Amino acid sequence: MPDVIDLSGKVIGSAPKPSFPDAKRERRDVIFRAVHREFANARAGTASTKKRDEVAGGGRKPWRQKGTGRARQGSIRSPQWRHGGVVFGPQPRSFAEGLNKKERRGAFLAALAERFDNDAVTLLDPKDFSLSKTRDMAALIFGSAKGARKGASTLIVCRRDEPQLVQISRVAKNLPRVAVTEDGALDVKDVLRFERLIFTVGALEALRDRLGLTEEPSSGRA
Fold first, then answer.
1. Angle, nearest 10°, between helix axes 165-172 and 134-142?
2. CATH class of 3-23+101-211
């Protein structure tokens, strides 16, 4: 069960963990393809070089075929010439990869389940969020300002309409190992890239509603 912390970083309770019925049966290759797809789809694919027939100039033979003692040349825009065309150079293309909706969902749930299983998820109630200094935010997340230099990389996930979203982003933006995002923008790449996830209570509820997850039943232990 994820811990719930207050503005001082102190654990004040715990919250029920979402149930991931199908996530643990997901294969690692699906997670790999989901991450690879996100990186590939972000590529612009605009790299372009000119071939021999596209380079300006070079219409005239630089010297006669025989009798000069030099190698025969047909154009100064041949690939072996400076400013000549490029052989097999990159051309504009799309790097987009496809992955069906069921696999994308399964990969995301599997990555999220792994974070919950390893106790790498914490909840924050931002209702009375009043921090205005970066050092206070560092103390909340890492225990101290010095701890922010070598602490676990942390992603803070807020609800899209969270009233405190702007303030949280402002006080966390100068922490090099901390990033802030919205629940709707969270993807499998972000879940795997950061060592620790901090959800606001509203963000976790919104994510659970969007994914159709239920709360994990209690183990019955006192």
1. 90
2. alpha beta
